[in-house]
Amino acid sequence: MQPVSNQLTLGLSLKDEATFANFYTARNAEIIDGLKHLVNEHNEKIVYLCGSRGQGRSHLLQATCHYAHQQKLTSVYLPLTQLVSFTPEILNGLELLDLVCIDDLHVIAGSAEWEEAIFHLYNRLFDANKKILIAANDLPKALQLKLPDLISRLSFGVIFQLHPLDDKEKLFILIMRAKQRGISLSEEVGKYILTHCPRHMGTLFAALDALDKASLAAQRRLTIPFVKEVLEI
């Protein structure tokens, strides 16, 4: 079997912008504190984070890895949506790391092979006094997992549930993200985008990316007519 470092060369690099400083905390400040506590404290080993798509689960897991790196700790970010097509053997040896962040746990629900592999990895990390952060779209008992012992393990640690963003918060985040990219996005234009695009943050960020590229190419400001033209809305 290949060394763990080679196995994980699968395009799983962290996004540079996925940091705690770049996350709009709103009502989730306690979660940020909890994730930092997981990295820094010796007596905290397990955190489970749940939230629906677009609420920032993946951002926070990657931010925790970035933060661990700042504390001189080794870590890995594992998005199961990208790994489920591989065999669970990819999890072997991860207990050598200080922190393992597993994203999208819900995608392996019902797979006996993967559920058992996650269960054993959890036990190896716990026994080695290492840290584990797991995220999914719902609470452990609602994931339709088939392995009762895995459900029990996931329910053992600290559980955080992300608060959903309201439209005012989404508008603020959209304007903040635009500013970080050097784009002037007025509140009026931001509201137009929010009103006419699906309100999932990933979709809104993708729209902003398209507008950024089109604005640079055309040397035009972001106005409602320009947004309407580029996004075809």
Q: Secondary-structure map with pairings?
A:
Elements (H helix, E strand, L loop, with lengths): L3 H4 L21 H12 L5 E5 L6 H14 L4 E5 H4 L15 E5 L8 H16 L3 E6 L11 H7 L3 E4 L5 H14 L6 H10 L4 H18 L5 H8 L2
Parallel strand pairs: 1-4, 1-5, 2-3, 3-4
Helix pairs in contact: 2-3, 7-8, 7-9
Number of beta-strand segments: 5
Please name the fourth-level CATH homologous superfamily of the largest domain: P-loop containing nucleotide triphosphate hydrolases
Task: Encode the helix/strand succession as letters.
Answer: HHEHEHEHEHEHHHH
Estimate the mean pLDDT confidence. Answer: 90
The residue fraction in helices comes out at: 40-55%
Strand content: 5-15%
Number of domains: 2
Tell me the span between the first and last alpha carbons.
Answer: 51 Å
Please identify the top-level CATH class of the largest domain. Alpha Beta
Write the CATH fold name of the largest domain.
Rossmann fold
How would you sum up the global shape? elongated
Low-confidence segments, given as residue ranges, are 1-6
Structural notes for this entry:
The protein has 233 residues and is of the alpha/beta class. It folds into two domains: 4-161, Rossmann fold; 167-231, Helicase, Ruva Protein, domain 3 (Orthogonal Bundle), CATH 1.10.8.60. The chain is built from ten helices and five strands. The chain has helices at 4-7, 29-40, 57-70, 80-83, 112-127, 148-154, 167-180, 187-196, 201-218, 224-231, and strands spanning 46-50, 75-79, 99-103, 131-136, 158-161. The chain has a five-stranded parallel sheet with strand order 2-3-4-1-5, sandwiched between helices. Helix 2 (29-40) runs parallel beside helix 3, helix 7 (167-180) packs across helix 8 and helix 7 runs parallel beside helix 9. It starts with a helix and ends with a helix.
